[in-house]
Amino acid sequence: MPFARLRSRVRRAAASVREDVDSAVARDPAAVSRTDLVLNSPGLHAIWSYRVAHKLWKREHLRPVARTLSTVTRAVTGVEIHPGATIGRRFFIDHGMGVVIGETAEVGDDVMLYHGVTLGGRSLVKVKRHPTVGSRVTIGAGARILGPIEVGDDVQIGANSVVVKDIPDGAIATGIPATVRFPGHPGEDPYEALFGEPALFI
């Protein structure tokens, strides 16, 4: 590989890592420093490992390597992300333990998951069987989003909710099965919304 191409790839990878760290700093009030996050955040370690595994997955002959890497990552971080999943930029998993993301899941940009979230399937057929999650979505601890459903942009899903139907842009989904509502007024502050919707506590 020509040196210029290699240098370009290294720069892109470094920029992606910085972007992920910046996103984690903005979303994790317990973060002591950027160095602390880089060394101790299982969510960051899981997403970085996933990004490598996903690149390997795109090459048919390297898929066994990709699967092995994802298995090792699960053992180390407690986060299971299938290398075939598609995940956007600035993705952050807080705490990490117990997160499962299936092979055909698709996730947009600026998405945040808490521990115990499942983006799972409801079919044994080899088709699109996992959720498609839009951008700027927050999914609370223990939530289950199941099947080839679509979760729109700017959605909030409450802790322990079970989502089996599409959720439109800007909605709030809570409960088992999840019911959908919209913010009380345009621009409703998510923090203030917590007090009106206790199930959103994450």
Structure description:
- By secondary structure, this protein is of the alpha/beta class.
- The chain has five helices and 15 strands.
- It has helices spanning 3-27, 34-40, 42-57, 63-77, 190-196; strands at residues 80-81, 86-87, 92-93, 100-101, 106-107, 112-113, 118-120, 132-133, 138-139, 144-146, 150-151, 156-157, 162-163, 172-174, 179-181.
- The protein has a six-stranded mixed sheet.
- It is globular, with a radius of gyration of 17 Å.
- 34% of the residues are buried.
- The model has no long low-confidence stretch (mean pLDDT 89).
What is the 3D form? globular
Largest sheet: 6 strands, mixed
Poorly predicted ranges (pLDDT <50, ≥5 residues)?
Answer: none
Mean pLDDT: 89
Strand element count: 15
- The termini sit apart by 46 Å
In short:
This protein has about 200 residues and is of the alpha/beta class.
Fold topology:
Elements: H1 3-27, H2 34-40, H3 42-57, H4 63-77, E1 80-81, E2 86-87, E3 92-93, E4 100-101, E5 106-107, E6 112-113, E7 118-120, E8 132-133, E9 138-139, E10 144-146, E11 150-151, E12 156-157, E13 162-163, E14 172-174, E15 179-181, H5 190-196
Parallel strand pairs: 1-4, 2-5, 3-6, 4-7, 5-8, 6-9, 7-10, 8-11, 9-12, 10-13, 12-14
Antiparallel strand pairs: 14-15
Helix pairs in contact: 3-4
List keywords for this structure.
six-stranded mixed beta sheet, 202 residues, alpha/beta, 17% strand, five-stranded parallel beta sheet
